[in-house]
Amino acid sequence: MIQCEMSNLSPLLKEAVTNGDLLESSLENISSLLAGTDSPIAQAAIDELVAQQAWEELNDRFYKTLVFGTGGLRGRTVGKVVTEAEQGAGGPLERPEHPCVGTATMNFYNVGRAIRGMIAYLKNYLASEGIERKPSFAFAHDTRHYSRDFAEFCAKVCTDLGCDAYLFEASRATPQLSFLIRELRLDAGVVLTASHNPAHDNGFKAYFNQGAQLVEPHAGGVLEEFQSVTQEAYEALPADQQGTLTVLGAEADRRYMDKLKTLLLRPDLLENGGAKVVFTNLHGTGGHISVPMLRELGFDVLTVDEQDGEDGRFPTVASPNPENAPALAMAIEVAEKEHAEIVIGTDPDCDRMGVAVRNDAGEMQLLTGNQIGSLMAWYRTKTMFDLGILNDSNRGHACLIKTYVTTELQTAIADKYGVNMVDTLTGFKFIADKLQKYEDGIPADKKGEYRDLSEEESRKLRLEYSRFFIFGGEESYGYLGADFVRDKDGNMAAVMFAEVAAYAKSQGMTIAGLLDEIYLEFGFYLEDGKAMVMEGAEGAAQIKALNESYSNKPPSEVDGVAVARVRDFAKEQFEDSEGDSIPNAGMLIVELVDGRSFAVRPSGTEPKIKFYLFGKDEPAADLDASKQKVRDGLVSLWSALEADAQTRMG
């Protein structure tokens, strides 16, 4: 291979390091990339940035190498500064012709290293298990810039290196890949997506044979192989040793949709037709399954014309994230015009779902991820007891699962019905790991081919021999109601929420009214999510320093209230309610003596440090007063935390 020359760059780069303009790590990573690629685009892009003395841009692109976080790999595919070499002839939807050059960015260099690392690990894993056959991979992608290109590239690398590859014919939701891995008994899979991140990002979500994202020991093993791949070029195997490519389309969609229908606990609620719904996929993949699925269930579904098209620019929103109110603004406008009762929005890869509902005053009301999840957790738990699926004799074998930073209202619901609540770290892979534990807990001679069982059959076995998963979720708008998918699923969430809507209608209530009934029974719980965004190399250092300051010097008082307990997940060892050890993580949870609490942790997928605020009040007849009391408490808490964070950052 003819490697890119760096000799002309070295003096300029070394001088920039000496002057404090360029990080030492950036220089090392620039050298590493140029030694590992023969791409003229890489050389030309770096030349341009050096000539412009764009040191901040070079640091942002090269201050680190990508590593696997809670969502696999994520990084920019379009730089803050786009070089002429990268722009080239341009690509579809105004994107540059070539992705962003860098070791901290998403490009063919890093994507190639990632998939080859997975292939190497998987071949070693199968050999260690005594399995002699070609490894098999599935690939899906969202609508982002370069997603299709990356997916096709990964599939080709797989077949070149002796693996069978399955690739969807066009963009598909992330959870559908999880379902496919389990359905076809594949060894691994990848979704090319950055979920709800800004348009300039893309990512590489890696899955193993359970249909869940990588957890240990596989995550560490793949990372080690990934880091050992330093050269972009590879040599394909002889034709007779290569794998085959299978393209998947409507047939695979139908099997997934039929499985989604099994989520309905009371299909009779939908016999007289459902509500009028406005659905938006925010230029992503959600409309492909959710819209026809809801229509099959009897809902009158409208869509937002301007947002129907798959467009990696996400041109109608500042952020394609249904967590953010502005992302649903256009859908709410349609709902007001058409007198619809519900707005549903999904993010680009359709693993998250946001909702707005018409309340008792006739106004559209946005629900938080905690509220959406609590409605579904309550309804599914209550209905399973109503139907006799759960009862006094088996409730000890049933559970809800949530993350530590998800509302404690769901814990109160679990306690009322006598089922277990399991808390996990942030990242749906930890919930999926629990589901695999429950599957593995069924005796082998009883479960046979578990993945071929109906939902009723598998539920019966879990309730008898292991633990049955009722519902799980996280505050960031991710939900799951069955274990045939092992990741959060926006399509599944739409089906489950539709049933909650039908139930509320059968009781003569709005969804907002139903939520208030839950508050009257369990007390008012409110949560708020805040974040400080710090981009690039400098931002990463600030996030690290701020997070460490909480661990090294936890507060003893916040907002004039004494701290009752601090849980430092970086330094202490905790067990969940099932006695399983919780992995160490950079998260701190602080509880105040007045019942308020907060958590702080750096995001695993975005350049931000996140704060989670929690408030609650006991059941009260005057619900409005209770709500105002808790809201005021969280406003005051954030004001104190924001000031404290600024002090910690100097």
Description:
This protein has 650 residues and is α/β, with parallel strands linked by helices. The chain has three domains: 10-248, Alpha-D-Glucose-1,6-Bisphosphate, subunit A, domain 3 (Alpha-D-Glucose-1,6-Bisphosphate, Chain A, domain 3, 3-Layer(aba) Sandwich); 274-522, Alpha-D-Glucose-1,6-Bisphosphate, Chain A, domain 3; 523-648, Alpha-D-phosphohexomutase, C-terminal domain (TATA-Binding Protein, 2-Layer Sandwich), CATH 3.30.310.50. Helices cover 40% and strands 19% of the residues. The strands form five sheets. Strands 1-5-4-2-3-6 form a six-stranded mixed β-sheet, with helices on both faces. The two termini are 49 Å apart.
Which short descriptors sum up this protein?
40% helix, 6-stranded mixed β-sheet, single chain, Alpha-D-Glucose-1,6-Bisphosphate, Chain A, domain 3, 19% strand, 650 residues, TATA-Binding Protein, alpha/beta
Oligomer: single chain
How many DSSP-defined strands? 23
Using the alpha-carbon principal axes, give the shape: globular
Mean pLDDT: 95
The strands making up the biggest β-sheet line up spatially as: 1-5-4-2-3-6
Cα gyration radius (Å): 25 Å
Please report the first level of CATH classification, the CATH class of the largest domain.
Alpha Beta
How many strands, which pairing sense, and closed or not: the largest β-sheet? 6 strands, mixed
Please give the alpha-carbon distance between the first and last residues.
Answer: 49 Å
Indicate the low-confidence ranges by residue numbers: none
Number of domains: 3
CATH architecture of the largest domain: 3-Layer(aba) Sandwich
- Write out the CATH superfamily name of the largest domain: Alpha-D-Glucose-1,6-Bisphosphate, subunit A, domain 3
Fraction of residues in helix: 40-55%
- What proportion of the residues form beta strands (DSSP E)? 15-25%
Helix-strand category:
alpha/beta
The CATH topology of the largest domain turns out to be Alpha-D-Glucose-1,6-Bisphosphate, Chain A, domain 3
List the total number of helices: 22
